């Protein structure tokens, strides 16, 4: 942190007297529970503090100098982490050697997979595969870092005899999502579960099933979904996204893909073989 630059905690204390009664209540909660706040969606924070609406949270972070809730949480996480670049089971610091970074990433990833092994039950995965199997069209939705996982999902499921759609253009997606059909399925990926471009077009969908992969099942996305895969990693990032979580998100896609292949029998295996052959001319 630059000399003279206030921490998030100092900004809250400096502006405390100018806050409303509800704002002070929120400030007190943030100061006492910063570790919890950085893992909460804006709706979850408002609910737990006992506020009437999310607008109080918006006024709070704007009053202390932040333009968005995400910026506020990232700054708060940075204050907690100090010189830590990433806190994910094991802190990674700016003076770590390449060997330490490698070992910490691998050990943290292994632990993350182990922690989610029992969390994703057979019933949950079977239900996800059932929804995908009965769908005529699969729409993969995600922006920013989540777009990479959504694109990967679209690529994996494209081997099946289904219409697959993916785009990083939110306007194009909004048009597609206006014309959802009963046998459509949306796979929506958002770590925060509060991405407006994902949530708003899906709030009033008709008939189509929604599978969410998110870091918070109580988020806005989680609440409107038919099925939720909650990928929750205890990591604090200063200026990075939820790194380890993306490995788990990709694993969910691969597990669902494999279940569909197994359930599809010889027909799907033949489709998979044909798909592989279509790439043969791209290799020496």
Account of the 3D structure:
53% of the residues lie in helices and 13% in strands. It folds into two domains: 75 residues, Winged helix-like DNA-binding domain superfamily/Winged helix DNA-binding domain (Arc Repressor Mutant, subunit A); 160 residues, Glucose-6-phosphate isomerase like protein, domain 1 (Rossmann fold, 3-Layer(aba) Sandwich), CATH 3.40.50.10490. It is an alpha/beta fold and 284 residues long. Helix 9 runs parallel beside helix 13.
Keywords:
13% strand; 2 domains; 5-stranded parallel β-sheet; 284 residues; single chain; 3-stranded antiparallel β-sheet; alpha/beta; globular; Arc Repressor Mutant, subunit A; Rossmann fold
Brief description of this entry?
The protein has 284 residues and is α/β, with parallel strands linked by helices. The chain is 53% helix and 13% strand. The chain has a five-stranded parallel beta sheet.
The radius of gyration over CA amounts to: 21 Å
- Per DSSP, what share of the residues sits in E-state strands of 2 or more residues? 5-15%
Mean pLDDT: 86
Sheet/helix structural class = alpha/beta
User: Can you count the beta strands?
Assistant: 8
Total helices: the number is 13
What does the main sheet amount to? 5 strands, parallel
Query: What percentage of residues falls in helices of 4 or more residues?
Result: 40-55%
Name given to the CATH architecture of the largest domain? 3-Layer(aba) Sandwich
Order of helices and strands: HHHHHHEEHHEHEHEHEHEEH
Taking strands numbered 1, 2, ... along the chain, how are they ordered across the largest sheet?
Answer: 4-3-5-6-7
Number of spatially distinct domains? 2
Regarding CATH, which class of the largest domain? Alpha Beta
Envelope shape: globular
Poorly predicted spans: 236-241
In CATH, the homologous superfamily of the largest domain goes by the name Glucose-6-phosphate isomerase like protein, domain 1
What is the straight-line distance between the termini?
51 Å
GO molecular function: carbohydrate derivative binding; DNA binding; DNA-binding transcription factor activity
InterPro entries: Homeodomain-like_sf (IPR009057), HTH_RpiR (IPR000281), RpiR-like (IPR047640), RpiR-like_SIS (IPR035472), SIS_dom (IPR001347), SIS_dom_sf (IPR046348), WH-like_DNA-bd_sf (IPR036388)
Protein name: Transcriptional regulator, RpiR family
Keywords: DNA-binding, Transcription, Transcription regulation
């Amino acid at each position: 942190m630059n000399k003279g630059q206030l921490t998030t905690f100092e900004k809250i204390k400096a502006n405390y007297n100018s806050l409303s009664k509800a704002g002070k209540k929120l400030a007190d909660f943030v100061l006492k529970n910063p570790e919890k706040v950085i893992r909460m969606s804006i709706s979850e924070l408002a609910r737990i503090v006992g506020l009437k609406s999310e607008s109080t949270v918006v006024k709070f972070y704007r009053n202390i100098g932040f333009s968005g809730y995400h910026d506020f949480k990232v700054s708060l996480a940075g204050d907690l982490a100090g010189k830590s670049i990433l806190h994910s089971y094991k802190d990674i610091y700016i003076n770590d050697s390449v060997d330490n970074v490698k070992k910490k990433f691998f050990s943290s990833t292994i632990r993350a997979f182990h922690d989610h092994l029992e969390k994703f039950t057979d019933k949950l995965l079977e239900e996800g595969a059932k929804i995908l199997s009965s769908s005529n069209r699969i729409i993969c939705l995600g922006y920013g870092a989540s777009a990479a996982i959504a694109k990967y999902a679209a690529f994996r499921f494209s081997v099946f005899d289904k219409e697959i759609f993916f785009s990083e253009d939110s306007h194009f997606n909004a048009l597609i999502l206006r014309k959802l059909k009963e046998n459509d399925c949306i796979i929506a990926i958002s770590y925060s579960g509060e991405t407006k471009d994902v949530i708003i077009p899906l709030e009033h969908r008709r008939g189509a099933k929604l599978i969410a992969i998110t870091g918070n099942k109580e988020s806005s996305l989680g609440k409107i979904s038919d099925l939720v895969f909650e990928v929750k990693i205890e990591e604090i990032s200063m200026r990075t996204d939820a790194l380890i979580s993306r490995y788990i998100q990709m694993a969910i896609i691969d597990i669902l893909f494999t279940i569909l292949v197994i359930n599809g029998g010889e027909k799907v295996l033949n489709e998979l073989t044909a798909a592989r052959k279509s790439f043969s001319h791209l290799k020496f």
